[in-house]
Amino acid sequence: MTDRKTLIVGSGVFGCSTALHLLKRGWTNVTIIDKASTLPAPDGASNDINRIVRTSYSDPFYAKLGQEAIAAWRDQTEWDDAYHESGVFCISGGDSTSDYAHKSYLNDLELGERVEFMDAADLWMPRMAPLRGYLNRDNGWANAGQGISVIMNKITALGGRILPGKEAKELIKEGQKITGVRCSDGTVLEADLVVLATGSWTESAFPAVRQGKLFQASGQCVAMVQLTQEEGNEYRDYPVVLDFNSGFYIFPPNENNIVKMATHSAGYLHSVQGISTPRTISSNPDDGLSIPKSEVKKLRDGLRTVYPALAEKNFIATRLCWYNDSVDSDWVIGYKPDYENSLFFATAGSGHGYKFLPILGRLIADIIEGKSTDEVSAKFAVDREIKHVDETRVDQMPRELVIGELCVAEDLQ
């Protein structure tokens, strides 16, 4: 048990999972703050109608961790019905051992997952286009907003505090030690340990502690279509479809018969004074959800490739979902060097952090407490040497967001 005064900035998957696991370990003084006045934050990447939950990774570390996370998600006494085991169908470019999908397939086999290569027609799902890939029946998707609400209730039940409407504007430093945070309303919150779990806002909110070029914010493009009740029933039991070749992915309809699709890519930058800064519905209420017109077309093409019968439906909404992307797609978890273990990074989800919500904080708490293995600590270290790039991005160079090229209502028809 420790009464170390801990202040976590950010109430997304990293912040909440960290708080939960510290509290479970007997930490008695844990507070989360978030700039959003209502939580879950309306513009946070962790708050959405769904997120893929999969073990299918080319990196065995994440594959095994994903299996552990799914085992936790399945416990409805802990996570309600936030997790839906629909299966995930991974479109593959072939059986080459250099292919990301094939490496993932082999890792799933090693883990004992229920997987098999097949044509989509073998799924007895006539509305899916004839695609080749593999189905993992032990994977699925989670209602992201619901999961965050569940974990917030767990945190408060264990004595943790969650304070909305507290925007951190400045880290307070005494010598080489961070001693707290000053908020935009003038409030000063003292702490022995400050954890920056601020996601895509990390660089723009705290430029003084930027960690080189290790991570930056990127906007990822999302669109949705509305199905009728009859259509929803027809597609309800389809799996998540993930195309490792194009980055396109699409979910089965949720309870409101909304089908969401997106592209996992290098995304878009919104540079403000040289730092990519999220542009969301909170900062730009009029068009903060709009995506570039060119991306509308790409999403339409992806929809046509997977579900031809839905391809002419109007998009009812779009969103630029902001990630904090690391260069190598590994998370950034560790103490900032030279700050006497008073400043800790828990960020850079890189578009694949949410699925680990139930257990991610265990890994983070181990590193905070110095209980992690050297291998794991080095993998996520703030000052690590970059040895590879993210191989899941179909385009490795993000583009600058051009406001004049954002879509309008007519582009969604």
From TrEMBL:
Query: Required cofactors, per record?
Result: FAD
- List, alphabetically, the Gene3D superfamilies matched: D-Amino Acid Oxidase, subunit A, domain 2, FAD/NAD(P)-binding domain
> Where does the FAD dependent oxidoreductase domain start and stop, copy by copy?
6-366
Q: Which SUPFAM superfamilies match?
A: FAD-linked reductases, C-terminal domain, FAD/NAD(P)-binding domain
Alphabetical list of InterPro entries matching this protein: FAD-dep_OxRdtase, FAD/NAD-bd_sf, MTOX
Q: Which domain of life is it from?
A: Eukaryota
Report the Pfam families cross-referenced here: DAO (PF01266)
Q: Which UniProt keywords apply?
A: FAD, Flavoprotein, Oxidoreductase
A GO MF term: proline dehydrogenase activity
Family named by the database record: Belongs to the MSOX/MTOX family.
Full protein name: FAD dependent oxidoreductase
Species per Swiss-Prot/TrEMBL record: Roridomyces roridus
